Amino acid sequence: MFLCVQINHTGKELLFLIFKEITLRNYSSLHKTFYSLDNLATLRYTSKYHDLIAENRINFAISDLKLSGLLNCPKRSYYELSDLGKKALSELGTDITAKYVHSLPKYVEYQKQRK
After folding, report:
1. Mean predicted confidence (pLDDT) in 45-74
2. For a tag on the chain, would you pick the N or C end, based on fewer CB atoms within 10 A?
3. What share of the chain is helix, strand, coil (3-state, %, to 5)?
4. Predicted confidence (pLDDT) at residue 72 exceeds the cutoff of 70
5. At what angle do helices 105-114 and 53-68 cross, to 10 degrees?
6. Where does residue 79 rank: exposed (0-12), middle (13-18), buried (19+ CB within 10 A)?
7. Residue 21 to residues 1, 42, 115: CA-CA distances in angstroms?
8. pLDDT grade for 74, boundaries at 50, 70 and 90
9. What number is the average pLDDT over the span 18-47?
10. Taking the model in full, what pTM does it have?
11. CA triplet 33, 37, 39: central angle to 5 degrees?
12. Region of 78 on the Ramachandran plot (φ > 0 left; ψ -120 to 50 alpha; else beta)
């Protein structure tokens, strides 16, 4: 997902790059039609706020990447890979999972402080 982050990105650019990298594999043609990129980008929660589901989930992922030290945010809505993020990307490629992110010391420490 973060193959193009050798340079810095704004929040909107990062969302676009992530949407661009989304692939729908191993699903029926009906599933692919319903969850096409256009449909996926416009799906909303049924809560009173009607937030966009994909954008919301991506923003939570970005937040976790920042908390774990994989992403730096030098200013609001502007992101760059940290040295740790570059190392993880070179070792794991796009197989950076939530389990991996949540196991990193910086993220674990953040969770301890929240309790």
Report:
1. 89
2. C
3. 55, 10, 30
4. yes
5. 100
6. buried
7. 6, 17, 35
8. confident
9. 64
10. 0.72
11. 65
12. beta
- What letter would DSSP give residue 44? B
Say how far apart CA 87 and CA 70 lie, in whole Å: 9
Between CA 95 and CA 28 the distance in angstroms is: 24
Q: d(Cα 101, Cα 92) in Å, to the nearest integer?
A: 12
Other Cβ atoms less than 10 A from the Cβ of 50: the count is 9
Cα 60 to Cα 31, 55, 67: the distances in Å are: 25, 9, 10
Collect all residues with Cβ–Cβ distance below 8 Å to 91 and sequence separation of at least 6.
none
